[in-house]
Structure formats: C-alpha cells, structure tokens
Amino acid sequence: MSPAPRGEHAQPLPVSRGSLIGRGHELATAQSLLLATAVPLLTLTGPGGIGKTRLALAVADTVAGAFADGMLLVELASLGDAGQVPATVAMAAGITDPGDRPLIETLTLVLRSRHLLLVLDNCEHLAPVVADLVAILLRGCPALQVLATSRAPLHLRDEHELPLPPLDLPTPERRAVADVAATAAVALFCQRAATVSPSFALTEATAGVVAEICRQLDGLPLAIELAAARIKLLPPAALLARLSHRLHILTGGAYDLPSRHQTMRNTIAWSYDLLSPDDQALFRVLAVFAGGFTLEAAASLAGTTPMEMVDGLGRLLDQSLIRRIDDGTSDESRYGMLESIRAFGLEQLAAADEETAARGQHAAWAWQLVTSLDLAHAVPGNIAWMSVLAAEEDNIRQALAWFDQAHDAVSLNVLCAALYTFWFPRGQYEEGRRWLALAMAHEEGVPMVIRSRTRSAVGMLALFQQGTDADTSLMLDEGLALARTAGDDWRLVEALVECGLLAYREGDMPRARALTREAEVICRGLGPDYRDSSLMVAITIGNLGDVALTAGDLDEAIERFELALQLESELGDSWGRTDVMCGLAITHLHRQEMPKAAHYLTETVAMTWPHFVGGFLARVLWAVAALAAGTGQASRAACLIGAADTLDRRYPGAVYPRERTINEWCLARLNA
C-alpha cells in the first residue's frame, strides 16, 4: 500500500472568500464538541441550502491546527455509486494501492495512528454506506474524529447531531434600519445583493420590504442568496410581490455552485428523490397543511393511526423536509415545513393530480376540529379551546377558503358561525366580518339557527369594531328574530345578550336591562346539558353590572360585578374575570376608592398581558391612567394614555360606555 506521508493533506481546504454570517453560535458549539468534548462523530444536519457545507469548512479551518495530522476533506455530493465511498475516502487519504488487504482494512490501518479530522461532506444520498464505513473507522482509529454534513443523521451510537436552524430574522416590530440590518438573514441578503448591484443599500424605504422577504424565505440562506441575486432585475418591492411563485424566482445560482444549489427547486428535489415512494406521497399530502400540524392531524390526512404515523414523520424529519416547530406552550409536538419546501411539496402534489383530494381532506379535517369543540354552545374567551384554534389558525383559514371556492355554503356558514366565538375575543373584527360576508352571500340549505348566529356575529363584530349604526342594529335584530323562531334556547340567550349589548352601547339602559335579564332567566333554566350555561349566567350578571355603572347606580354595579366575579372564579373563566375586574376597578375609581381600584387593575393587567388582546388592553391602560391622574401622577397618566392610543391605532375598536366615562373622568382631572 502507498499512503500519503503522515501529516500531509491530500487536498487543501477550499478557500472561502465570503464571511460566515449568522453562524457564530453554531461555529463555537461545533468547535467545543470537537475539541473540548472530543465527540467521535459530529454531524451537521439541516435542509438543503441551510449552509451545512459552509459551516463545516469554517469549523475545519478553525480546528485543523489542533489535530497533529490535520484534516481530510472528502466531498461526496457528486458520487452516485455508494460502493465507491471507501475508495473515495482512501484516495483522499493518499492510498493509491491497497495491496493484498481489503480496502477498508487498509484504510483503517493507515488512519489508526493518526490524530486526524475527517470531513465527509454531503452524506445523505449515501448514508447507509457512509455510516457503515464511519462505524468501522471509529472502532479501529482511536485518535480519529469525523465531521459530517448530511440532510439526515447517520444514526450511529457515537454520533452527536448539530441541527442548523434558519438564520436570525427581524421581527415585525423591529423596523429601524439599524435593527433590521443587524439580523443575520438581512445581512446575508444585503451582502449578496451588493455583489450583483453595487449601489444597493438598505434604506428606510426598503428595510421593511427586505425584512419581509427574509421572513417569507424562512431565513434559509440559499433561498435568501437566490432572491438577493434578483435585485439586479427587480427592486425589493417587486421581488416580494413575486414570492408567491418562489420556486420560479429562486433560480440562477452561481455557475460554480453544484447544480443542486443553482435553483431552490433542485435543492429540495435532491432530498425528495431520496425518499421511498410511500414517504414521497406522505410528504406531498403534508404540504397541504398551512402553519404546521400535529401527529394526529397528519395521521388523519394520511388515513392512518398516530402510532403508525410516527415512523413516517421520523423519516421526513431525518431528511430535514419537515421540522419541529414547538413554541414551548403546548405538551403536544407540532411539525411544519419551511415555506420553500412546502411550495415544492404543493407543486409535486399538483403534478401527481392529488391536490383536489388532499385539500378537500384537509378542509374536512379542519371542519371536524372546529365543530368538535361545540363552539355553538360556548362563550367567547375559553383559554383551552382558544389555544387549540390559535395553533391551527392558518389551517382554518385555508379550509374556509376551500369551502368558499367549492361553493359549500353549509360548511362555510357552520364554520364561520362557530369561529365568531374565536374571532371576537381576539379582536379580529375585520377578518371575521370578511369571512362571514362570504358565507352569508350563499345560504342555500343553511339551518335557521346557523343563519341567526352568522347575523348576530356580523353585528357583534361591527359593534365592537366601529360602534353602533343602522347595519349593526339590523344584523343583531335579524339574529334575534331568527333565534326566537329557531327553537334553540341557547341561541336565543346569545341573541338576547348581544342585543342587550347593542342597547347598552346606544345608551338605552332600560332596554339593555330588560333584554339581559330575559337572557339571564332563560339561561338559569337551561340545566346541565349546556356546558357553559352557568358561565353565561355570570356574563349576564356582569353585563347588568355595566348597565348599572353607566346608569350611575354604583352600589348595584359593585353588587353585580362581585357576584359575577365569584361565579367566574368558581368556573375558572379567566377572560370573564378579567372583564369584570376591570369593571370593578372603574366603579371604585368613580367612588374615589383608589386602593381598591389599584388592586383590581393590577389583577386585570396581570391577566390581560400574557394573552395581549390589544383593544381590551388599551381600555385597561386608560383605566390605569385614570388611577394615576386621580392620585396626582399626571406625567405617568399622560404616558399611559399615549400607550393606550398607540394600541388603539394598531387595534382599532369602539369604546365601551363604561370606559368612555372613565376616559372623560381621567381627562377632566388632567385638565383641571
């Protein structure tokens, strides 16, 4: 055998002429794992275009000096024959003649005494053979360490996997040019854009657009580089507008890049082609999910059980075609795709003539999810089901669009009628009204109770968004009339409460009191078959507290609010408690009972802040400002009013009569 002399590199490390952007943490972690921890095998994993090779070369460059015999780089991307893997590694090690021994035995003997870093780049398409070879070398070469890059781990006992996340992205709230430019994704975009358009620079006019481009590309380095290369032809706004067809735009990579990295489609196809036909079919159907999915949701669409789905998701996860997207707020894992990968999956779904069926199944799954919560007999704001719907909001929107496109009037109306209970407490007035308008335009075959609910929903969303007007009154009155005819007591209670709120907003306190008391009486007679009947009783009592407060009967207001608070505390209704405590705080402010007002406002802010319902929080901040004004803290009150005004502009909505009175009370003291 003829090995290369000890300490001699078979090939020099490729020179990188660009800086490594946004990978400082991963670079330091890899260095520590290889040097301080001395892991035998470190595999950098992630989807195509995430920057595995670039990071591996940077890691090798920084740690090579710590290895007495340096490093060997073996590039496997162009190798199509798995049987040639040992020969390719042997050639990199300088073995030109293995002699009489098997090649792998010769390679092990040559490397056994060497303190060496072996870098194996792009292993995913040869993973089983690479894994076998690495296992043999690690057993026979105690001073050898391996740094591999692969879209899938090698699944060896000595392997330490280091998944590469997307680059850091600017949040929508970070709008200053300096803040946007400081994020890794935008920095990479600007660096690449400047190479094709030297005059390109981030400005006040373009910073937000470039930030949105990077967000839509999920911080995927290759996608960002391909998009930035288009700046020579398209200004940022025009480029952003065309990202809905991203796979057609994300092309034209440099000619000295591997062909799989010259277009985003080729990059993803490389991983897709490594899947079995069954896993390809699973990948295609999962692409229909928007905003992620759970194990159970994936199993539902694939027509299998969650237990049977585990292995399939595991294989897609291994190939970096899906990823876990847990936010830490749920015990249940969620999975999703980077949007460029999802776009490829949808493209393949259409090419396989499976799109119509998959989208129909997805819409049916979303419909079943929402209707299973029985929101028609629920009250707004229940945190348990709110969190379920919030996680699936993008999927639900897609289902609504599908039912509208398919002219499925009944499904669209049923879904919208249920979702009102979700849209209302979140302040999504405009979106809810838009979907409801589409639903109500086609009501053939829709049951009367659903038509009642959609009309009331439109009226309530309009009432809280813009206040009272003729159309709002018409919708709520029609909803009540249909409810009285439909024969559904729960719907009648809802409609009475809603029309009571309308009367309250219009300043008609006698009518507001009469309608709300009628709702309370009916609701008390509903019995245990209605899960939220006790909660609805508490709501009617709280609403009667608002009526008393606005009418100037502060004693009755406190009595009503305290009873409602007791009931809602017993029932665990955090949303209702928050609203009632705000009412109590305002009542005590009117009575000049500042310590009690402060107590209830502190509780209100603490309960409102985590869920950040912008419009309601603005009302709360006004009440806190009133407390500050009433205790001689004019500067603090002014700051709080400014914060409330900012929220009002961002989350516009009509003001409650009770809040209007305290706003006026606050301003009167500040202007005194």
Structure description:
- The protein is built from 32 helices and eight strands.
- With 672 residues, the protein is mostly helical.
- Among the domains are: 24-163, Rossmann fold (3-Layer(aba) Sandwich), CATH 3.40.50; 177-265; 274-353, Winged helix-like DNA-binding domain superfamily/Winged helix DNA-binding domain (Arc Repressor Mutant, subunit A).
- It has a five-stranded parallel β-sheet with strand order 2-3-4-1-5, sandwiched between helices.
- Helix 20 packs antiparallel against helix 21 and helix 27 packs antiparallel against helix 28.
- The longest helix is centred in the last third of the chain and has 19 residues, at 448-466.
- The radius of gyration is 31 Å and the shape is elongated.
- The termini are far apart.
- 47% of the residues are buried.
- The mean pLDDT is 89.
Outline:
This protein has 672 residues and is mainly alpha-helical. It has helices spanning 24-36, 52-63, 85-92, 103-112, 127-140, 177-181, 184-196, 204-216, 221-228, 236-241, 246-249, 264-272, 277-286, 295-302, 306-318, 339-351, 355-372, 383-391, 393-405, 409-423, 429-440, 448-466, 470-486, 489-506, 509-524, 533-551, 554-571, 574-590, 594-608, 614-630, 634-650, 657-671; strands at 41-45, 71-75, 116-121, 144-150, 159-163, 293-294, 323-324, 334-336.
Give the helix/strand layout.
Layout: H1 24-36, E1 41-45, H2 52-63, E2 71-75, H3 85-92, H4 103-112, E3 116-121, H5 127-140, E4 144-150, E5 159-163, H6 177-181, H7 184-196, H8 204-216, H9 221-228, H10 236-241, H11 246-249, H12 264-272, H13 277-286, E6 293-294, H14 295-302, H15 306-318, E7 323-324, E8 334-336, H16 339-351, H17 355-372, H18 383-391, H19 393-405, H20 409-423, H21 429-440, H22 448-466, H23 470-486, H24 489-506, H25 509-524, H26 533-551, H27 554-571, H28 574-590, H29 594-608, H30 614-630, H31 634-650, H32 657-671
Parallel strand pairs: 1-4, 1-5, 2-3, 3-4
Antiparallel strand pairs: 6-8, 7-8
Helix pairs in contact: 1-2, 4-5, 7-9, 13-16, 14-15, 17-19, 20-21, 20-22, 21-22, 22-23, 22-24, 23-24, 24-25, 24-26, 25-26, 26-27, 26-28, 27-28, 28-29, 28-30, 28-32, 29-30, 30-31, 30-32
